[in-house]
Amino acid sequence: MYLIRMKRKLFFIAPLLFLSSLLVAQSPPRHTLRIGPTVMHAPKGWRPATAQRREFDFGEHRLIVFSRSFSRGDLCYVEIVRRPASKASPKSEEQTAEKDAHTENPRSERASQTEKIGEAVDLIEHHLYYKGSIQRQVHLHAFSDGWQGLFLIPPDQNGDTYLTWTQKVKADTRKDVFHLPVHLKSFPESKSVLPFAKEFVDPDKSKAAVLAKRLEEERAMKGRAFSHRSAWAFTNELSHPRDMHYITSPFYASRLNQRYKDEGGKRTYLPPVRSIHRGLDFRGVTGAPIFAIAPGTVVLAHDMHFEGGFTLVDHGNGIFTGYMHQHRIHVKVGDTVKAGQLIGDVGATGMVTGAHLHLAIWVQGIPGDPLSLLSLPLR
Asked: How far is the C-alpha of 335 from the C-alpha of 299, rounded, in Å?
């Protein structure tokens, strides 16, 4: 009798132990790393790729650019700082003083003009040229050592990037151009058979008008959210979005999706659809935590037809991150979030085939690889 009772207990306890072990495997502990000036919250066992660095000197300033690999789809972090003063000999100091005494623009006046540059950021234009034809301005933020900003190498770029630094002080204008070679890496391609829900594969025609109205409302909602503009919100803290690192679909992968529908147990295949994956998919189970990767303001938190539970965070200067297919959203519009803050739970809502997090980042409307941000030494 005793053995029978023990077997019954094991019959109920064993599945619970198995499920709990799975949950532990799915949710390993996170830890905090110090990578240069940046504080990184991440799953244990994961570290971001080390950023590459390129420097350009011009006048009294130095332009420093960091990127994960200077590849298509990578975000880049730029700093413009004052160059370290070189030690000059007494003779050279005397020669410089004598030269300044005979010029209309002595060194003291040049120094004061340089100070005015730092005080009047609106007099500085910083442009990034894409493909030699499209021009984008890198919005700069003043910090203790100079100016800082983020820009994106577009994923469809076919050539190098040129950074043009233009500074205007009174009637003087100076223009410096810096060549930034770009690695034109190829993105992966895949072919898969995806069992999407019937509403996405073969929607009910009787509900077409209702669906069209909903999609129109959601487009307007997203348009208002993306039009939100705010100041630079980044700090020296960044975070991995999950408690484990397992990417199931990489950024900008070209996917040939073979869809089908079930009719009375019979599978009917539909014409394949090719799509570009403009984000990253992270594996997860329903209810697993989602963390904000950088500080910002929530400008959208709503259940969408395709995106499912969708949260959009504005980080300032036209940079947004999006978290899709959430089972539950923990924030609301207007909330200020910090890097590493819990903002939602992984889910299988919207147009999905299983539970996961789709993470996206946009810089002035152009999609980039979100993981490339986590390699940058922000301060």
From this structure: 8
Residues 6+ apart with CB under 8 A from 36: 377, 379
Q: How many domains, in total, are found in the chain? A: 2
Strands 254-263 and 289-291: unpaired
* Residue numbers of the domain that contains 46: 31-84+122-180
Torsion of CA 100, 103, 107, 108, to 10 degrees: 100
Reported as a single tens digit per residue, the pLDDT across 92-129 is 444 433 333 333 333 333 333 334 334 434 444 444 45
Most confident among 10-19, 22-31, 192-201, 333-342 (mean pLDDT): 333-342
E-assigned strand segments in 8-123 = 30-35, 38-43, 52-58, 61-67, 75-82
Task: Give the separation between CA 356 and CA 247, rounded to whole angstroms.
Answer: 10
Q: Are residues 293 and 354 in the same domain?
A: yes
- Residues 217-241: pLDDT tens digits? 999 999 999 999 999 999 999 999 9
Residue 247 in domain: yes
What average pLDDT does the segment 342-353 reach?
Answer: 95
Q: Indicate the pLDDT class of residue 28, thresholds 50, 70 and 90.
A: low
CATH number of the domain enclosing 44: 2.60.40
Label residues 146-163 b or e (16+ Cβ within 10 Å = b). Answer: bbbbbbbbbbebeebbeb
**What's at 63, amino acid-wise?**
L
Q: What CATH number did the domain enclosing 368 receive? A: 2.70.70.10
Do both 217 and 331 map to the same domain?
Answer: yes
